[in-house]
Amino acid sequence: IDKLNRDKHLEKEEWVTLLSGYTDDDRAYAAGIAREISNSRFGNKIFIRGIVEFSNVCKNDCYYCGIRRSNTNVQRYRLTPDEILDCCDEGYELGFRTFVLQSGEDKSYTNDTLCDIVRRIKAAHPDCAVTLSLGELTYDEYKALREAGADRYLLRHETADKAHYEKLHPAEMSWDNRMECLKYLKELGYQTGAGIMVGSPYQTAECIAEDMLFFESFKPEMIGIGPFLPHKDTPFRDEPKGSYELTLFLLSLCRILLPDVLLPATTALGTIRPNGREEGVKAGANVIMPNLSPTAVRKKYMLYDNKICTGDESAQCRGCLEMRMKSIGYEVAVSRGDHI
Ligand code: 5AD
Q: What is the CB neighbour count within 10 angstroms for residue 168?
């Protein structure tokens, strides 16, 4: 851990050793360093991003995901551009200055429509950042969205190990294309987010070592890490959930590796443990991403079982968050929270 902090690099074998033999003391030690780093960069301020989950229609069939196309138990929904705008307006009033538009890979929204939505949000709220999380698109589509004003893009690589990727996705999906997309996003000047699920089926310490090496070389501005949680209507329904402790440890190690990275304490972390997001912040996370979707659709965007905050209104989530952060000595920042 000291070596990582000093060199901002470990060899693959060193990662494997660290990830397969850590103790609670090691985790606490890493968390202490990570938290010192995030406090030196961000003080006691936590950035918030309002997520609008605007469609749960998806053409993909990822084995882990509750909104995969084969799941016929999902009531599919799509928000209109006006409804999306309304969510952002409400979010603005609540102090959000970043809006994350997330959906399944739903081709019923043309790229022109998506560009229009981005332009309208930026026109209505010029002091806000727009983050997109729409999956794999073409270079030209990413480019048009960037020109329409999108600032950031979240696309988890899921795993840096191609053979592992192929165990999580049907053959029609491609690890090479996923990696190509991430390269495009960086090239186009997006603040780019990659990330993984901790404890996804077939994941080994070697896989995570590769993920850490990928983070080191790609230098994502954002890293999304949460535990894998099974969903009852997927092929992975009987797989064990990921480790809460390992997730926290990895948050700390990511903070140490990339001191300026924007690192959310994810909803999945808050789902696996009631105080998971607070513990995530204490382990080095500096971002929280509450939901701004209309209450009527929240239960339909279930990527995994028992997802938290699906019964609450946006204002309730905002208040709850404020309180949770205060309880551990942190404050919610009203700002875009760009990568430095
Ligand atoms: N458990 C945890 N995370 C999941 N995701 C999708 N399904 C699950 C699950 N069952 C994550 C993926 C995806 C992100 C939007 O949500 O990493 O990239």
A: 22
The DSSP secondary structure of 242-259, one letter per residue, reads PPHHHHHHHHHHHHHHST
- What integer best gives the mean pLDDT of the chain? 98
Nearest Cα to Cα of residue 45 among 323, 339, 326: 326
Structure tokens at 325: 């952060």
CB of 227 closer than 8 Å to CB of 197: yes
Lowest mean pLDDT among 121-125, 187-191, 231-235, 313-317: 313-317
- For residue 2, report the distance from its CA to the centre of ligand 1, in Å: 31
Q: Choose which residue among 164, 289, 304, 308 to substitute to test ligand 1 binding: the one with the highest number of ligand atoms within 8 A of its C-beta.
A: 304
Which residue's alpha carbon is at the smallest distance from atom 18 of ligand 1? 156
Beta-strand relationship, 98-103 and 50-55: parallel
CATH class of 2-333: alpha beta
CA distances from 184 to 14, 133, 246 (A): 30, 14, 30
Question: pLDDT digit string (tens) for 175-218?
Answer: 999 999 999 999 999 999 999 999 999 999 999 999 999 999 99
CB-CB neighbours of 150 under 10 Å: 26
Alpha-carbon 335 to chain mean position: 19
Tokens of 8: 């901002």
Give the Cα-Cα-Cα angle 228, 231, 232 (nearest 5 degrees).
150
d(CA 193, CA 216): 13
